[in-house]
């Protein structure tokens, strides 16, 4: 989202892709707003939110990847809950 590709113009003897260099760019205010909205739609600990904002200060794309990875791992963790915990007991002890 916020990476730039810098290519140097060399002679025809060199491939431009070999000399291409990626530069990380800090997140803009709009990117921070989008990141905040993405993380506020789910229950996210404040530690994770502040870590994403700290990453965004140096690299906006990495902050979005960090947020996406956290949200997908949290979603997978919620799916893996043990279904036996939600099962009703086999015996009814209410009539003792």
From TrEMBL:
Domain of life: Bacteria
Name of the protein in question: Uncharacterized protein
